[in-house]
Design brief:
The chain is mostly helical. The protein has a three-stranded antiparallel beta sheet. It is built from 14 helices and three strands. The two termini are 21 Å apart. Strand 1 and strand 2 form a beta hairpin. Helix 7 crosses helix 8.
């Protein structure tokens, strides 16, 4: 470490914290002028991109159990942000969303009051026996939000239908032929099995359960982000390649690294 330039050391510290999704600590390691170049995105986009970069690294390193466990948090955040941006269903304005101990929850009774046709659609799709009713707020899972997106597609309820068609055309988002093989449901089942299993999940397990190889799944996640934020966000996929070059430059010529 003593033989390395201080900028290279800071960058390596930043990478270590970043891949652990400790983003604020990673930022504090860097001087302000470097920080803005390494972390150029607005907070909402940054949170999703950093999570996806960590998932990408898991796949490249063969840490498939870690990858699977990151899927639900990523989808929960992305699908929620997408609904707020592009679906004619103002959940926050209705007061339908609450957060309890870091878990986002929804009052279905408010959906029933404000948008009864959506309520009926969700009840039919989720199944009456599984559909949350009553006074309590319940966790809003990716599969629930996926049904909202399908409703918007069928009923033309997206603010920008071209954007919505682009999202729903991503293979991961497509409705399966058999309801028992809905990919979004399979991802949730796979997460639950992995979380409670002493045996590691591998690439074949993911492919067998979902019909999608992990690397193709990562590609789909990037396409989903691009549908909402534009294709330029895919440039962030090379973030770690760029920072590796910056580390090499800092070692070879510290002043020219940035």
């Amino acid at each position: 470490r003593d033989l390395l330039d201080s900028e290279a050391v800071d960058l390596m510290k930043c990478c270590k914290l970043r891949v652990q999704l400790n983003i604020e600590s990673a930022k504090r390691v860097l001087p302000a002028e470097q920080r803005d170049k390494v972390f150029p995105l607005p907070e909402e986009q940054e949170k999703l991109v950093e999570h996806l970069l960590a998932m990408d690294i898991d796949v490249r390193q063969g840490n498939f159990s870690s990858f699977v466990l990151k899927i639900t948090p990523f989808l929960s955040e992305f699908l929620y942000r997408y609904i707020l941006h592009n679906i004619d269903c103002p959940l926050e304005e209705w007061g339908a969303i609450v957060e309890e101990k870091g878990i986002r929850k929804i009052y279905n009774k408010i959906i029933k009051k404000e948008m009864p046709d959506l309520y009926k659609y969700l009840e039919d799709q989720v199944g009456k026996e599984n559909f949350y009713k009553g006074e309590k707020a319940n966790p809003i899972y990716p599969i629930f939000m996926w049904h909202i997106l399908n409703y918007a597609m069928e009923k033309n309820k997206a603010k920008d239908m071209e954007m919505h068609k682009r999202l729903m055309d991503v293979p991961l988002m497509r409705r399966a032929v058999n309801k028992n093989k809905i990919i979004m449901k399979k991802l949730n089942d796979l997460r639950n099995v992995t979380a409670h299993s002493i045996q590691d999940c591998d690439e074949n397990c993911i492919d067998g359960e979902t019909g999608i190889k992990p690397q193709y799944m990562i590609d789909d996640f990037w396409d989903m982000l691009a549908s909402l934020y534009g294709d330029s966000i895919k440039e962030q996929r090379r973030s770690y390649q760029k920072i590796n070059l910056q580390i090499l430059n800092a070692i070879a010529s510290p002043r020219d690294a940035f």
